[in-house]
Amino acid sequence: MSSNFCSKPVDVSKFGIIYAGAQKNVGPSGVTMVIIRKDLIGNAQGITPIMLDYKIHHENKSLYNTPPCYGIYMCGLVFEHLLELGGLAGVEKMNKKKADLLYRAIDESKGFYRCPVEKSVRSLMNVPFTLEKSELEGDFIKEAEKEGMVQLKGHRSVGGMRASIYNAMPYAGVEKLVGFMKDFQARHG
């Protein structure tokens, strides 16, 4: 997990192991979260690198090596903030509200913007979209950057645009993007 980690409640009992990067919703890159079912600890193959043998970590209370203290501290602050927001249920509610606003703008654009993802499996964290007139995508990116909205260029394997609306993105940021999208459509539609 990475993009969806701590974005909504997850029944961890349905997983044997959850291996999650913190860099999207929890803290700085370099911190990794591992949640492992106890019955899976101690079953590492002989070729398993020691850092991935969770028995070693369990026996050493996750302190086998020097942990990234500052990163863990930052994650702790984020966890406190998530609790203040109502825990993961409150965070999920906020994330759905942001995603609904952005997907609605795409879906109601009369085809000017298009989302290539089936509605039933759309992400709350990453919203990919394209323009009906693909030749305008470069202009969209440049004009958005002038308005302080960066990193909207789509994933290199897909193209188009991608709005990453992780937990740290406030609702006002999504409102700004939607306003820009509507203005861009009015000028180029």
Topology summary:
Elements: E1 17-21, E2 32-36, H1 54-59, H2 69-84, H3 87-107, E3 113-114, E4 126-131, H4 137-146, E5 161-164, H5 171-188
Antiparallel strand pairs: 1-2, 3-4, 4-5
Helix pairs in contact: 3-5
Description:
By secondary structure, this protein is of the alpha+beta class. It has helices spanning 54-59, 69-84, 87-107, 137-146, 171-188; strands at residues 17-21, 32-36, 113-114, 126-131, 161-164. It has a 3-stranded antiparallel beta sheet with strand order 3-4-5, with helices on one face. It has a two-stranded antiparallel sheet with strand order 1-2. Helix 3 runs parallel beside helix 5. The radius of gyration is 20 Å and the shape is elongated.
